[in-house]
Amino acid sequence: FTSIAGFFTAKFKMHPFISTMANMLVIFGLVTYATKGVSFGSIEATIPNMIIPKVNGFPTIILWALAAIIIVWFIWNKTTFGKNMFAVGSNPEAANVSGVNVMRTTILVHTLAGCMYGITGFIESARIGSNQANTGLNYECDAIAACVIGCVSFVGGTGKISGVVLGVFILRIIFVALQFLAVSQNMQYVIKGLIILIACAIDMRKYLT
Predict the structure, then answer these.
(1) I want to staple 95 with a disulfide (CB 3.0 to 4.6 A). Which of 86, 100, 134, 160 is the partner?
(2) Whole-angstrom distance, CA of residue 59 vs CA of residue 46
């Protein structure tokens, strides 16, 4: 499905946010229709212990996060695909003139993202135990907020893994503080939206003439 979103982005010059959001709605609709929106059972009890075992209270799920950071950092910084990805994100026309296959790179970027979504979804399912069709709903807003806080440009071509990690930490601290202060869930959505809006506005100021 994410490869399809990549195809629409590359073929029709569609903004990645639009193609990915449309893709997400289609998947959510299909899953909701198939499951009637109710819980579709819990994961076998042995699976969570295999994936995120408990070791003297240490949250081993962090090890999965570290592995993902290392893998993506290597792809971004040490491979031709990573260089092509930044080139396409910065200026697809210039990248095409330079010999970069823009369509293939765009589709591969979305495919890589889809692989990460799948792995993360599996780990999150193991952590929660019982899942519904709306499990993970609005997680995409958390991801967007963390990235823009971490100085990943919304128009593409700029960003570092260290910035994303820092953005995740900052966002998590903000929401832990809000929960500690007993701020309602609805107001947390408002604050999350404002964070995305302000961070994107600051980012876009660089492109105003």
Answers:
(1) 100
(2) 17
pLDDT of 183-208, one tens digit each?
Answer: 888 888 888 888 888 887 887 776 66
- Distances in Å between the Cα of 203 and the Cα atoms of 93, 151, 173 are 22, 8, 22
Given pLDDT bands bounded at 50, 70 and 90, which one contains residue 16?
A: confident
**Residue 174 identity:** I
Q: What distance in Å separates the CA atoms of residue 174 and residue 153, rounded to the nearest whole number?
A: 21
What one-character-per-residue DSSP string does 104-166 give? HHHHHHHHHHHHHHHHHHHHHHHHH-B--TTTTTTHHHHHHHHHHHTT--TTSS---HHHHHH
Task: Report residue 63 as tokens.
Answer: 């090890």
Tokens standing for residue 134: 């709306």
Tell me how far apart the alpha carbons of residues 164 and 148 are, in angstroms, rounded to a whole number.
Answer: 8
DSSP alpha helix (H) spans, 12-101: 16-35, 46-51, 61-78, 80-90, 92-97
Long-range contacts of the stretch 5-10 (C-beta < 8 A, 24+): 5/110, 6/106, 6/107, 6/108, 6/109, 6/110, 6/111, 7/103, 7/107, 9/106, 9/110, 10/102, 10/103, 10/106, 10/107
What's the mean pLDDT in 148-175?
86
Per-residue pLDDT tens over the stretch 104-136:
999 999 999 888 888 888 888 777 766 666 677
Specify the pLDDT at position 133: 66
